[in-house]
Amino acid sequence: MASTTAVRAALRTQRIETPSWAYGNSGTRFKVFAQQGVPRDPFEKLADAAQVHAFTGVAPSVSLHIPWDKVDDYAALAKHARDQGVVIGAVNANVFQDDDYMLGSVTNPDPRVRRKATDHLLECVDIMDATGSRDLKLWFSDGTNYPGQDDIRARQDRLAEALAEVYARLTGDQRLILEYKFFEPAFYTTDVPDWGTAYAHCLKLGDRAKVVVDTGHHAPGTNIEFIVAFLLREGKLGAFDFNSRFYADDDLMVGAADPFQLFRIMHEVVRGGGLDAGTEVAFMLDQCHNIEPKIPGQIRSVMNVQEATAKALLVDAEALAAAQQAGDVLGANAVLMDAYNTDVRPLLAELRAELGLAPDPMAAYAASGYAERIKAERVGGAQAGWGA
Ligand code: PSV
Ligand code: MN
Ligand code: MN
């Protein structure tokens, strides 16, 4: 087993970004259940995200979603974030909620709609300039529902053209990170359905274009850790959108459906250097808490990522390599399972104590009185954007 001192040192440096949309009301296409005390504006979302960081110590940044988090002054929003003890992270573009986008955004057959969509992406880079964000995160709902509805190849050309224009607008260390999803809302073709399509576009764009692996965006049975290993090896894994799926894009708390899968993914991250200093891999949550309270839902997810990471760090790499080299199938598997079956909760509690935090973030948040305070202070919370 790897030394726990080294494991603790690595865990100290891990950062997990939470999404602004996790803090507002959300739901399914059937119903949005309103919860008391949810944020009424982006400023309050950042205040709630700061609570997740205050109790976990590892969630110091928050992704925005534009226009859900539209404000007049993004520099002021960034300052507000810093005042709360967090920073603004990735900017997520939204080119899927306008009527104009019924037949697609950047792949729409109508050049006017394509222009509008690309302009929105460029506007998101302006916002990144104001907030100091590094990453522009792109997920496109674009696709078709019926064979023959549109030209599959032409849509790829239009996508490439828009991505190239946006990529050319990036400056400094800014990155374009491209997410894929195998279906929904389109049901016949999706224009960025899989890692291969995202990878091919990113490869053409250049070094600052990377792929986002959203753990909920694969067909059942897909070996996500293989994709992670491959992209890391190619220097093209830009970020994770962590969440759990039972059926499709369920956006449940990460590690809830399949903690073993999360461990296997984190094992490949560790193996591929994705946790090392200066890593290019951003660890983000992309979840919607429809029925559970928002802030504790995020805290639980952050803890689940930490637990999977701790287990992955505990894998005895030397013993594993020796067993693999010797063709010892059962021995190699046992090395991995030993790490997975370790209860890392005491180790994480110790780590939190070292960082001056309460050992149990869930209990500490519950005891803090914050939930009661926001329920009393905030009336008429905002909707996250989903399930409207
Ligand atoms: C839609 O599938 C989605 O869940 C994607 O995962 C995006 O990252 C997220 O919405 C926010 O746009
Ligand atoms: Mn996502
Ligand atoms: Mn999704």
TrEMBL record:
Q: Where are the transmembrane segments?
A: none
Q: Name one GO molecular function term.
A: metal ion binding
Mention one GO biological process in which this protein takes part, according to its record. Answer: rhamnose catabolic process
The record's InterPro entries line, in alphabetical order, gives: L-rhamnose_isomerase (IPR050337), Rhamnose_iso-rel (IPR013457), Xyl_isomerase-like_sf (IPR036237), Xyl_isomerase-like_TIM-brl (IPR013022)
Enzyme Commission designation: 5.3.1.14
Instruction: Name any one Pfam family assigned in the record.
Output: AP_endonuc_2
Sorted alphabetically, the keyword list is: Isomerase, Manganese, Metal-binding
Q: What top-level class of enzyme does the UniProt entry assign?
A: isomerase
**Stored SUPFAM superfamilies:** Xylose isomerase-like (SSF51658)
Q: What is this protein called?
A: L-rhamnose isomerase
